[in-house]
UniProtKB/TrEMBL annotation:
Gene3D superfamilies: SH2 domain
Keywords, sorted A to Z: SH2 domain
GO MF term (any one): non-membrane spanning protein tyrosine phosphatase activity
Name of the protein in question: SH2 domain-containing protein
Record-annotated SH2 domain positions: 4-42
GO cellular component term of the entry, any: cytoplasm
Protein's GO biological process: positive regulation of ERK1 and ERK2 cascade
Pfam families: SH2 (PF00017)
Length: 60
């Protein structure tokens, strides 16, 4: 079980979780609510960084 993947979590809830419990170097990955199929990487403990959108492609 990984601790960084949070599935269907809102941006606001991710920010609150990282603000309350995040340390420098912590992060979480969640499913994007605005772009289905994409993911969002949210850093914790770093005030100057915003979340990053990720699109993963499976190449066979």
């Amino acid at each position: 079980l990984v601790t960084w993947y949070h599935g269907h979590l809102s941006g606001r809830d991710a920010e609150k979780l990282l603000t309350d419990k995040g340390k420098a170097g912590s992060f979480l990955v969640r499913e994007s609510q605005s772009k289905p199929g994409d993911f969002v990487l949210s850093p914790g403990g770093i005030q100057c960084l915003d979340s990053l959108s990720l699109r993963l492609k499976l190449i066979l």
